[in-house]
Amino acid sequence: MTLALSPPTSAPPVAAGLRCVRLDPVAWARQAASSPRPLGGLGWGIAAPGLAGLELPVLSEGGPLVDAWLGQGGTQRQGRNGAVQWQADDRWAFGQLDLPDVDGDLSGVARQAYLDIFTALRACGHTQVLRLWNYLPRINGDGGGLERYRQFNIGRQQAFMEAGHDAFEGAPAACALGLPDARDMPGGGLHLRFLAASKAPRPLENPRQVPAYRYSSTYGPRAPTFSRAALADAGGGRVALFVSGTASIVGEHSVHHGDVLAQARETLVNLQAVLDAANARCTAGFTFDDLHCTVYVRHAGDAAAVLALLAAAQPGAPAPLCVQADVCRAELLVEIEAHAFAPGALA
Question: Any catalytic annotation for residue 61?
Answer without folding.
Answer: no
